[in-house]
């Protein structure tokens, strides 16, 4: 009567289950569509505004205005992504973790052979795979925009600039991981979203005040605006955020009690 | 297969205490579910039935007491222990974005079933709980009762030896109630130990081997499933317990007053 267990497959089972939930949910699909299409549309709009001589947009872009070509396009996209992408990634994580509490499905995840810590790690692994997919998709869309604008001919040598984009998207996804921990501790989506907003605000303020190349949650945004001001070693500190908060998340799920 | 001759307890809680702010919680409950037994717990809202089930399943850590699941203490329970458990406490495993079949497939994986056995077990669960019409329908479009059927099928498809169900007939239509009743009787006959809570005394009497009454976080007595007027027997127990507690509280207050009166006051 009792089922046999394949212990080695428990994390794999958690990843399979979480991947299936993420694939079936409209939240992840619409977050991808809105992020990629939104950033693409915004970049095109900004380029059109610069072309038409819009003084406000030109003032806000600052030194990026005169750059042009692939470097100009990628510069605009990474600046939008550093804030907008972080928001989208934080919302996705808040949903993945917070929905279990909001929907009440967390109770069904107790008393299972797949440990809750494995479920939390499964969620983070699926999130990471999704974020890499978003990075590649956005890069493809931006490459398409550049080619349509003729940069393939006029600035063929600058095409390498586009390699910054997937790296920035992935780094941005990594610094959103505290949202998962907050959604777990706060037992819902809103604490995760509030934490995401907090990270965006702190990162942007520190960037403006030119502080924090070595602060992991700041480095990606600073690198987006001024790549030369962030040493490569500073970018290597960014994975410390998902490592620390991913571990905290797994611990919180392992020790979870339905006491609220 | 579960050895039917085994007399070990499938589920056991000893001296379980869990206090909440405001005074609610468990106040020292002993409870066991034997192999092949359906043990029902009944009580008024807030009596502590769900808290007891949560503590028994590791959803809440007790302040005191010990839980054993199929003979294994909760601290030592590993994947093999939990693979023998099926439960629905409050929300069933029924994700809105998945079809009924999708939910059963992920439930099978979470119960530790190898990939090759999933399809067969899911087919069987769909047949057992008459979910064929809804197998490919998103759970968000199902009625509350059918979502409950999906959750019950998800909890039972791996043929658990230990089954804990909190008010499982809630939202079920009469056909669903009969399906569940037959399902539980069949599993108990095969050796599973089943703990079930309910407000429906008639329904409980049809399936339970033993009925324990919970009140104010304590097990205050039992009802005979074959008794003629369960409702009356239930209220006699609960109201008698409430009256005894009220009397005890009044006695305590009177003793406190006497102690205060006897205490010499300092001179002004």
Chain pair with largest interface = A-B, 34 and 48 residues
Structural class of chain A: mainly alpha
So how many helices of chain A? 12
CATH topology of the largest domain in chain B: Rossmann fold
Mean pLDDT of chain B: 91
Any idea how many domains of chain A? 1
Helix content of chain B: 25-40%
Task: Choose one word for the global shape of chain B.
Answer: elongated
Computed structural class of chain B = alpha/beta
Which segments of chain A are poorly predicted (pLDDT under 50) over 5 or more consecutive residues?
A: none
Known CATH architecture of the largest domain in chain B: 3-Layer(aba) Sandwich
Bulk shape of chain A = elongated
Following the backbone from N to C, one meets helices and strands of chain B in this order, namely EEEHEEHEHHHEHEHEEH
Instruction: Give the rounded overall mean pLDDT of chain A.
Output: 90
Gyration radius over CA of chain A: 20 Å
In DSSP terms, counting alpha (H) and pi (I) runs of 4 or more, how many helices of chain B?
8
Beginning-to-end CA distance, first to last residue of chain B: 79 Å
Tell me the count of domains of chain B: 2
SSE inventory with pairings:
The complex is a heterodimer of chains A (260) and B (268).
Chain A lengths: L9 H15 L1 H26 L3 H7 L7 H34 L13 H33 L2 H4 L9 H12 L2 H8 L3 H20 L10 H7 L6 H4 L4 H15 L6
Helix pairs in contact in A: 1-5, 2-4, 2-5, 4-5, 4-7, 4-8, 4-9, 4-10, 5-7, 5-12, 8-9, 8-12
Chain B lengths: L8 E11 L5 E10 L3 E5 L6 H8 L7 E6 L2 E2 L5 H4 L2 E4 L11 H11 L4 H14 L15 H13 L5 E5 L7 H16 L3 E5 L3 H7 L2 E6 L2 E6 L6 H33 L6
Parallel strand pairs in B: 3-8, 3-9, 6-7, 7-8
Antiparallel strand pairs in B: 1-2, 1-4, 4-5, 9-10
């Amino acid at each position: 009567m009792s089922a046999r267990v394949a212990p080695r497959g428990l994390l794999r089972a958690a990843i399979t289950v979480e991947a299936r939930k993420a694939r079936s949910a409209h939240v992840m699909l619409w977050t991808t569509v809105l992020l990629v299409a939104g950033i693409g549309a915004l970049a095109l709009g900004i380029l059109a505004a610069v072309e038409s001589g819009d003084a406000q947009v030109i003032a806000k872009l600052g030194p990026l205005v005169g750059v042009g070509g692939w470097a100009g396009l990628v510069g605009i996209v990474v600046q939008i992504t550093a804030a907008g992408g972080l928001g989208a990634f934080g919302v996705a994580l808040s949903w993945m973790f917070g929905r279990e509490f909001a929907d009440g499905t967390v109770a069904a995840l107790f008393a299972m052979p797949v440990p809750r810590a494995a479920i939390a790690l499964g969620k983070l692994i699926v999130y990471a795979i999704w974020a890499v997919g978003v990075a590649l998709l956005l890069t493809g869309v931006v490459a398409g925009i550049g080619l349509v604008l003729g940069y393939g001919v006029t600035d063929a040598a600058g095409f390498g600039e586009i390699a910054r984009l997937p790296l920035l998207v992935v780094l941005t996804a990594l610094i959103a991981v505290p949202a998962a921990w907050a959604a777990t501790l706060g037992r819902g989506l809103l604490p995760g979203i509030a934490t995401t907003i907090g990270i965006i605000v702190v990162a942007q303020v520190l960037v403006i005040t030119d502080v924090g190349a070595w602060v992991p949650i700041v480095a990606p945004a600073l690198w987006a605006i001024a790549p030369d001001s962030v040493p490569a070693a500073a970018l290597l500190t960014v994975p410390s955020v998902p490592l620390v908060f991913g571990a905290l998340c797994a611990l919180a799920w392992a020790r979870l009690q339905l006491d609220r | 297969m579960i050895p039917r001759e085994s007399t070990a307890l499938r589920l056991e809680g000893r001296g379980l205490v869990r206090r909440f702010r405001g005074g609610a919680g468990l106040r020292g409950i002993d409870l066991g579910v034997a192999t092949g037994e359906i043990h029902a717990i009944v009580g008024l809202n807030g009596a502590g039935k769900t808290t007891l089930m949560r503590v028994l399943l590791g959803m809440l850590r007790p302040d005191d007491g010990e839980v054993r699941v199929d003979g294994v203490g909760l601290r030592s329970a590993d994947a093999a222990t939990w693979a023998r458990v099926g439960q629905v406490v409050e929300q069933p495993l029924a994700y809105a974005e998945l079809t009924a079949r999708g939910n059963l497939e992920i439930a099978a994986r979470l119960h530790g079933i190898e990939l090759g056995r999933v399809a067969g077990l899911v087919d069987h669960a769909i047949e057992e709980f008459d979910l064929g019409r809804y197998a490919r329908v998103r759970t968000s479009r199902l009625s509350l009762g059918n979502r409950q059927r999906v959750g019950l099928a998800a909890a039972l498809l791996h043929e658990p030896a230990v089954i804990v169900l909190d008010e499982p007939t809630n939202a079920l239509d009469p056909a669903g109630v009969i399906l569940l009743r037959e399902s539980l009787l069949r599993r108990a006959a095969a050796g599973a130990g089943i703990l079930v809570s309910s407000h429906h005394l008639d329904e409980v009497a049809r399936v339970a081997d033993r009925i324990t009454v919970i009140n104010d976080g304590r097990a205050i007595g039992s009802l005979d499933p074959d008794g003629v007027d369960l409702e009356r027997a239930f209220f006699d127990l609960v109201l008698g317990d409430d009256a005894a507690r009220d009397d005890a509280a009044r006695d305590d207050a009177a003793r406190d007053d006497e102690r205060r009166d006897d205490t010499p006051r300092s001179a002004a």
